[in-house]
Every structure is written in structure tokens, then in C-alpha cells.
Amino acid sequence: MCFCKDFDNNDVEEAEGGKIMIELSQRQYLALRLLREYQKPIKGQQFSQLLNVSPRTLRYEVSAINRIAGQPIILSNKEGYTLNEDPAVLQQIQDCRVDDDRQLEKQLILALLECKEASIYDLTQKLYVSESTIYSLVKRMMPKFHSFSLSLQRRGEWLSCQGKETDKRRMLSHFFFAEANALATTLVNFDGYFSPFGLAELAQIIHETLDELDVQIDDIYIKNIIICIAVCVQRMINGYPSDGSETEADALPISTSPLLTRFVDTTCGRLQEQLELTFTEADKATILAFITGSFPEENEQILQNERFRGQIRKLLDKTFRHFQLELDYSAVFDNFVLHVHFLLLRCRHQNFFHNDFATSLRTSHPFIYDVAVYLAYQLEKEFQAAIPGDEIGLIAIYLGSIATYVPTYDLPRVICICPQYHELRKLMVQQLTEKLSCTLDIVKIVSSLSEITDQDHADFYLSTVKTENSLTDLIPISPILSPLEIHRIEKKNLEFMKAQKRRKLRQNLLRFFDDQLFFCNHGLTTEVEILTFFDQLLQQRGVIDNQFMDSVRQRESLSSTAFFNRFAVPHSLEKDALLTKVVYYYSDEPIRWYDSRVNLVLLILSRSDDEQASKIYNLIFDILIDESCYKKMILCRSRQELMDFLEANSN
């Protein structure tokens, strides 16, 4: 039996007993399952929402399923999508299965890490696959092993994993981290790996030790600690001793926290007693290295390291200048210095954790997250450490704490009319600052309208006194703001922001898009094809140099710019284009954008001296994040249609 990846006739194969087996992607299999469970037609909009895809992608997947099957399995009419009720078709649906190459790959990884040599013949028998499938999987897995400084070698019919024991443990830790549930007490698969102890049992020992030491560990790090210790213990039980590489003279620095050392000693002591194991200093050093950076500690030496502090300050300043931000980070600087120190420890030892911050911040605060990605890029260059996406999410939280407002738009200019009576003006300004959820730019405070000159400009006015001259943009308020008055001011501010948004779109996006940079359905369906096409086109026009697209790819390697399996907004790390422009590319057929599938790609080109360049990302995202707006936008088939759409839908 073979396992095929491409959607062609090879996807349909004969299994044992002569049955025709159809292999589908997980999304395609889910589509069939939903139709079976509903047992009634599903409207296209509801169906696409259930699958979390666009209607066009849904139609593509339905077409692919029917093409793979060789007949219409899924039918569509005005009532929606439904399954073909023909008995032969229903039997064919019953025989559909998910392409399980990934599960086979996991089993093969574990087999190669858990034996000194593995017979290819034994692997084919154990995994029920052909030799060619084993070779294909091994070839595909090689980069994963290389990323942990491991290699796969073949000697006749034997396969083996070569490398340090520490690196094998690290790869296993990453492997089981992905398989374990959120609490790290059970595994989704491979439940029988840990024996004679279980993850839940080990977790209890770790929590008891932490309680005894009166240590509070952040939830996002606990899972890492449990999995790493579990892997180290199991490898010892399986007869693979620590190789001592973490105690070598040139080993990477680890935390010197006495509390962390006590935790490792106490935990190992309890496991030694319970499992009758002997933990050597090398064993403890390995565990210490695996969880360093995950333990809280007050380290005055780090805060007193002026060289390190200077490096961090330089990178923060450079990042904020790059995005034209003026932020005061003094209140959080010491905490951020400590955070970067432990971040570097985790990255250099390839320690890991998972959180949902990165995903949520990418979508809710795309500009702040983009600033965090750029800062992570600067940290990587400065300290020669690869920073994963989950760490970028934590950096974004720090930035968000000092950049609660990102100036995508200008603040409304307000003139206040208020008599100069005792502390009345001061009280009014204080209330406007503390009680409003929005921010106003109070440019002038006067006692009456007569004090306002022709040179004074305001977007609207606030007045605590009655005025005969009726201003259309005047909001009457009392010296002590009521909830109703606060609502009126915030409503007026919202109207101003919407009007400004329309104006900004006309002024900026209209000049960013170009007739010569607008493309629809050119047959490009992968990120490689699209970026190559953009690169050649833009270099010919003299808009970018031959290094620009490398920077775009590097930005994607730090964190994908694809969102919701709908659109991608790639851009370079540096503002090194000769013009600020947006290249528009749309495809009815889904585009494979790295690990996502999208239909729309907007490449942002930014010129360093363009003041609006830093705001273009948010301007575009404001449109694309609205699903109904996005669906209308992708119907545009020319730049003029796009411009008409932007002007009509920017309120």
C-alpha cells in the first residue's frame, strides 16, 4: 500500500479485498463528515464557515473531491451542498480515508530515535508500508533531524540516527510537546511510550516540588518542564545515558539560579527513590539545560550588565525609529532586559513552550505584532539566536504595554469653551482624559466663541456654556461629565475617525495601488511562483534591488503574514524599496502560501523616507480583517474597481 500526496489518479488505489480507497486531505475528509452528520443540504456560506475557508476555496475543494473520486460525490443546488445518495457512491464515501503520511512520519521518527539501528524490512512490517514509502518519508524527514544537529544514515538494510544523546532528547521533547495535551498529562498518540511511569504521575511530583519550594511557574512553561524531564527519565530507563555534552567547557550558558538547582535536585531525588534510578551530574545538567530560562529568578548581575542593557536599548530605539514611534519604555525596561536574557537562554538551548498570544495578537494588533517581529529580527542578528513565533508573541505583549495606542490616524483637534473659574478648566481636562475611552488633542481652551480666531482649527468643539452661534460640530457638556455626555463625545470622535479613515484611504491607498501592479488569475498558485514573479517584475521596473525579496522571505520565516486562510500581506524587514506601492495578486484557485492557503496576496513596498509607509500595513489590514469587506474586495477585477470599492467601503 502506498500513500500519495498529489490530487491525481494515484489518489485512488486498490486496497486489500479489491476495494477502491480514496485518500483525502483533512479538510476534504472533514467536508464529507459534515455532510454525513447534517443529513440535509448545507448552504454555501454556512459550509464555508464550518470549514473556515472562503466560498471560492470551498468550491475548489468540492471540485477536487469529485475529481479524486472520479464521479460526483458532493452535489450542489440552490438548497446547498449535499451528498450523492447513490448506494455505490455512499459505499465509496465509506471507504474514504485521510492521507496519514504525517502519522506514519511520527511513528518513523520515534522508531529511529528509540533504537540504535532499525531494519527497513522490520519498519515496513511494523508500519504496513512499502520500502519506497519508508525511503520517501526518510527523505522528507531529514531537515527535521538536521535542525537538531542529527543525521540519518543508511547501511545496507539498516537505518540509524547519528548524533549526541542530548540532541536526541531535545528532538524527542519537541516531538512529545506537540503530542501532549495542554496540561502535559496525556498524549494524543503514543500513550504507551512513557513506562513504568505516566506523565500525570510525573506532573504531580513536579507540582509538589514547586509547592515545597514555594515557586510559582508561569503556565506556559510548566508543560515544557514536564515533557523535558519525562523524556530525560525515559531515555535513562531505556538505556541511553546522558552524554555529558551540557557540562562541556564550551557548552552554552545556563541559568545559575540556586532555586532552579534545588528544584532539579529535589525532583531527581524523588524520581530516583520512586523509579530506582541513579541520576548522575550529567543527567542533572541535561535537565537543567532543558528547562533553563523557564524558571523565575531575580538576577541583579543581568540588570547591572551595562553592555547588555546598552545592546537592548540600542535595538529598541532602532526598532521604534524604523516604525516612526516615540515611546517611553523606561518603566518596563528592566523587566524587558530580564525577559530578553531568559529568552536567549531558551533559544540557545532550543527550549520551547506554546501560547496563543502570537495568533491572537497577529490578528487583533497586527501593527504591534509587526513591530515585535522586527525587534525579534534585530535580536537574532545581535545575539545569533533563532527566535520562534511563540517568543515573538511575548515580545509583542511587552510592546503593547507601552504602545497602547498606535497612531494609524491623527487625533481629533478639539477646542474647549470653558470659563476660567478656579480649577474648572483643570477639572474638565482631567475628566476628558480619565473618563473617555478615546484620546483627544485639546488644542485650545477659551472662555467664549469670540476668542476663537480664523487661524484656529478644530475638528469639533466642546462647550460648558450656552452659545448663540450654532456650530454644527459643537457638543454641549456640563462641568462634570455625565455618562450621556461621554457617549456623545465618543460618538463624535468615532465619526471623525471614520471620516479621516475615508480621507486617508483616498490620499494614501489610491496612490499605493498601480494599474501595472494589479493581477488576477495569472496561474500562479504557490508562494515561490508569486514571489519570483514579483521579483522579476519589480526589478525590471527598477522599484527594488536583487536583495529585496530575500528580506521578504526572511520576514515570512520569522512569522507568516498569512491570515485566516484568506489573504497574505508580505513585506520586507527593511524599508528599502524605491517607491511605496502595493502589488495586488488574486487567484480563484487557492494559493499555497507556506503553511496556509490564501486567495489574495498584497505585497507591500515601503520607501524609507515615506512617512505613511509605517501606517500602510494597518490601513490595509483594517479592510481585509472585515470578512464581508474582504469578500467584496476580491470581486474587483481592475485597479479602478478596487479604488471604487475602497472609497465606498471605508466607512
TrEMBL record:
Top-level lineage group: Bacteria
Gene Ontology biological-process annotations: regulation of DNA-templated transcription
Protein name: PRD domain protein
Ranges where the PTS EIIA type-2 domain occurs: 511-649
Keyword Transcription regulation (UniProt): yes
Keywords assigned: Activator, Repeat, Transcription, Transcription regulation
Listed SUPFAM superfamilies: Phoshotransferase/anion transport protein, PTS-regulatory domain, PRD
Domain annotation PRD: ranges: 303-409
Naturally occurring in which organism (per UniProt): Holdemania filiformis DSM 12042
InterPro entries associated with the record: BglG_antiterminators (IPR050661), HTH_11 (IPR013196), Mga_HTH (IPR007737), PRD (IPR011608), PRD_sf (IPR036634), PTrfase/Anion_transptr (IPR016152), PTS_EIIA_type-2_dom (IPR002178), WH-like_DNA-bd_sf (IPR036388)
